Amino acid sequence: MPAYTHLAAVTLYAGVPERACVIGISFIHERKRVLALLMLCQVNDYGEIPMANTKTLNDLFLDTLKDIYFAEKQILKALPKMARASQSEEGKAGFTQHREETQGQIERLEQVFELIDKPARGKTCEAIQGIIAEGEEIIEEFKGSPALDAGLISSAQAVEHYEIARYGTLIEWATQLGLKDVVPLLQQNLSEEEATDKKLTALAKASANAKGKRAA
Ligand SMILES: [Fe+2]
After folding, report:
1. Portion of the chain with pLDDT greater than 90, in percent
2. CA 212 / ligand 1 centre spacing (Å)
3. Cα of 189 to ligand 1 centre, how many Å?
4. For a Cys-Cys bond, which of 78, 118, 197, 211 suits 160, CB 3.0-4.6 Å?
């Protein structure tokens, strides 16, 4: 028995389009019965009923890959400034070495984009911009102070921890998505970030923190 459905929709704009509602009245004639259904739906800025969000873990993976690609490129630019600002030779050498590693990490990320057949593009990462801005603030405010290197190391570790979090997530998602060739590339980046983080801790404990305690 075919059902006959008639849908009448009225869009009510209450001044603010995003708060507008659509009231749909559906009459279903079936076996001489009439059912009236009232539906209240949120509509978008264009007065349309939004479609269901169909984004998947693949989309999330790509977005996060773009995020870390953007972040690595920002870090590449920030590291020479940190090397110049560092008062110790070990600090300068450490930041310079990590700049070279970062270049390699960017190339690995470009290989990942290629493997998933997407163009290598970054997506603005406000988190890394904020961490780098804080580092620049330390360089500015602690210039000439014995605590400068301790501050630089703390900024660099904040960067490393951000990267470690991102790579850990990407590796897990790549595994879930069956992207077998992608995992080792991301894993290599993660291992380098973890090793850098350990070196920074050693550097801080060996000298920078102790120097920072001295009066200027
Ligand atoms: Fe990195």
Report:
1. 67
2. 26
3. 7
4. 197
Per residue in 72-111, pLDDT (tens digit) is 999 999 999 999 999 999 899 999 999 999 999 999 999 9
* Centre of ligand 1 from the C-alpha of residue 146, in Å: 27
Distance 209 CA to ligand 1 centre (A): 24
Mean pLDDT of all residues belonging to the chain: 84
Cα 95 to ligand 1 centroid, rounded to whole Å: 11
Full strand arrangement of the beta sheet holding 21-30 = 4-12, 21-30, 33-42
Ligand 1 is an ion; its neighbours by CB within 5 Å are 102, 105, 163
Distance 160 CA to ligand 1 centre (A): 7
**Under a CB-based contact definition with an 8 Å cutoff, are residues 102 and 79 in contact?**
yes
How close is the Cα of 155 to the center of ligand 1, in Å? 14
Q: What is the DSSP letter of 214?
A: S
Domain boundaries, the chain: 4-42, 57-211
Given a cut of 60, whether residue 39 has pLDDT beyond it is no
Phi, psi of 43 (to 5 degrees): -115, 160
Question: Of 75, 161, 64, which is closest to residue 122 (Cα–Cα)?
Answer: 64
CATH architecture of 57-211: Up-down Bundle (1.20)
Position with higher pLDDT, 19 vs 138: 138
